[in-house]
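INFO  loader      accepted 1 record
INFO  loader      residues=576
INFO  predictor   begin
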Amino acid sequence: MVETSSPIAHTENRTAPETSFSYRPLLGLQGRLAIGGPALFPSTTVELTQGINPDNEVGTMALLHNASIRERKQHWATQPEQSKDAQLSQWKKSVVAKINLIPASTIGQDHAEFFERLGIDVVHFNEEDAQRLYDTYFSKNLSGVGIGLFAADVVEAFATSGDNWATHIKSHLAAAKWMAGMFGGNSAEIITQLIDAKIDNLNTSAFVATRKDKVNNLSDHETDLLNFLTEGQTAPVEPPRTQTNLHENEHPTPPTLPPPHIPEEPDSIPTGGGQPLTNPESPLASNPSEIVLDQEIESKRVTQAYGEKVQGASHIQKDVPCQDAIRIESDPEHDILSVAVADGHGSEKFVRSEKGAQIAVEVLNDQFFEIRRLLREKGREKAEEYVRGQLAKKISENWNTRVYKDISSNPFSPEEQRVAKLTSFSQKELFPYGSTLLGAMMMGDELLLVQIGDGNILITDDQGVISPIPHDPALLGNETFSLCQKDAIDNINVMTISTSSFKNPMISVTTDGLSNSYEDDDAFHQLMTDLYTRSDDSIKSELHNWLNEFSTRGSGDDIALGILRIKNAEPASSSH
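INFO  predictor   done
INFO  writer      dumping tokens
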């Protein structure tokens, strides 16, 4: 039968975990997981001729994500009805109890290094640590992909342990399966078998030789696991085949970690870090030269928000996609405008920087929505408190989370691994998605500015042009800070500035492809002065052609430019 996780009581007087750590490789299952696709249905006859198919691996992980969610929902359906907060509280208590008992177990002590490498202090593990565990793998953004991130964390934890790291991690697969029990018993078994298979896949010929005779001679347990994985899917029609039984003691032990609840509405369970916001009504524009937003704002102060991005002339010649992104939103009722632009790094190793830039503008846009929500529901003081204390942290964390989610659902291909010089286990590297990020949001008389990396935020009025966030002198030449860096949070500039001293200001937010098209800052600032004197209608009608011309005659790079306009503002008496 397919196993399901059972609840673990919070028992004070136990001296050892309820179940021991155990793991046995299921070679027939591993072979079918390697093939993927139709091979995941046990009724099909398959032939194993090569190692893990990275294209089909994406679909396999998608099935496992869904199966894990089903398994966790089934687990909690067997529990007494209670609020989702109470379910989460129960889960944390159970996890703490089980992890704290590990040192008392001889087998647990044998795997002390595993927990240490994952940053888990088994002696002092508490409910705050359990909450962080939940946030890492079960928060709203990760409700369907946490199991893939867990596998990547396990491999990454040992990949730096020397030449024998593969053998090293294999010795701790029992602990990995035990820990993965939080995703459900069957899900834990499958993901651990997949980790084992990926390690053996380093020697493809040996991998095939040890599994090719097993893939069509599955045990009952392997069949059950595949049926669990493909539940609800349509299997191809194949002749029936004979199965052999697996000895009873080779069945996996039920996990000791109960699975967290996956609610019907994920945002009804608090994750401890604020709920990520999404805006399903405003997806990213896919056309590199599309005007993202051209909307009049019904307000006495804020009147215009518009922008555009174009593919660079050199990118067109080299058949390289546009790696810039732009996102503009408006909230007419509350007199708020926002623009976000991002520039994915152009070096060859940044193989997914285009996606990294798209994720970046989405993340900042979501944070702007969160600030607007705080303004409406909590008032300006709470919104400003969030900006000062949380905004940079949330931008960095949420970008990382969404990149990990993208990697989990779309692992790096062999070609991407070759170009980016990634190992076959580098499925949690951030740098291939490297990108800058700049943004501005109007909040009445206040202007909120955000920037990491190169690019320009300028404020222009009838008295001239200013750059409120100056270039960092520590950066030389084409160097730039990036969201993909481990210390990204330390390099995100967040600033609020009053617009009361500006008369009818124009705020421009642009990637560096535009400024690099000019000899110096003076010439670039003159462009902004020229734009300031033009009507918005004339700018919008010509912006696409202008940006193409700037790239062709100048930098050759992609360009994204967003503009916010404030009209009928009363300037202060002093000049800036």
